[in-house]
Amino acid sequence: MKVFEPMKFKKMEIANRVGVAPMCTYMCLKKDGVAQDFHLTHYTTFAMGQPGFIIQEATSVNESGYISDYCLGIHQPRQREALKRVIDSVHAYPVKFGIQLNHAGAKTMKTGSRKISASALSEGVEEASLADINKIVSDFESAAKWARQCGYDFVEVHSAHGYLINQFLSPLTNKRTDAYGEDKGLLLQQVVEAVLKEFDGPVFVRLSGDEYSEQGRSIEDTKETVKRLDRLGVSLINMSSGGVAPVSMSVYPMYQVHLATQAKSVTGLPLATAGLITEREQIADIIDNEKADVVLLGRLMTRDPFFLMKWKFDLGLITKENTPNYLYRSLSAMK
Ligand SMILES: Cc1cc2nc3c(=O)[nH]c(=O)nc-3n(C[C@H](O)[C@H](O)[C@H](O)COP(=O)(O)O)c2cc1C
To answer: Does the C-beta of 205 come closer than 6 Å to ligand 1?
Structure first.
């Protein structure tokens, strides 16, 4: 079955086509952005279920980029020390581990954090100056260097869900008249170039393929962004949607798959899809019929980290010989 076939991104090989979607856990309870024992256990538990890869939750590249008081950061030495422990623990398993680098922009809820965005459209939000923009690009560059030094296998740039880079991309939130307003993808391009300069492994980008607003970005705009990212040397587009405009969107099983499929048609760049994918048949359909190249599972993996193991067992891919005794005995007791 193609789901369990390996795939390569640059020199990185994933053992199967299912990954764990990035999901904030809001568990830095000391509000210092430092990973706790919880994070080590949480990500290692995912690794034990042996997905092809795991994308670590949105992690801030600097002081003002946190989504909440309880999110991870990578810009301080002790944050990196703690992240290294998590990475080493995950790497005890045959799973690739990447970090999602983020700046929350106007959506930061961290106490005392400056709220910057492309434009100052609501109270308390400041328009990013050119000095701010240069610093953000260089903070992503430093974060990519630190990600490499820490030992991550890949990096994902978060350019979706209405966070800072998405705020620049979207006509809903970018009303600038300078170069960053004329070319709304300029910040994304500069960030990706900076990250690629420092990180020699695969670089992924998460995009909101549809903003569900007439004035916002549509999948047609996203296709142009995908072409641009392909030219820059990105290895995968992680296709999501929404998060910019406060619109009500209807979600249903596999609701974002068509966005990945449409974007896949414009370049040879691999596409990931996520969103209410919970059944083996859905995953097999997406991969076998090339609707996307990899499937990301979010909440399902949290509640059932051994989902893939159970599937592999049923397919006969897990045997007494290739699996530790404790796990084989547990899986074979399923029926
Ligand atoms: C608790 C939670 C936290 C999330 N945090 C992030 C995040 O840090 N970065 C991101 O790109 N998406 C985030 N998402 C979105 C997920 O990556 C995923 O796209 C979404 O949960 C849909 O997939 P699912 O139905 O399999 O859970 C989050 C979702 C949840 C439920």
So the answer is: no
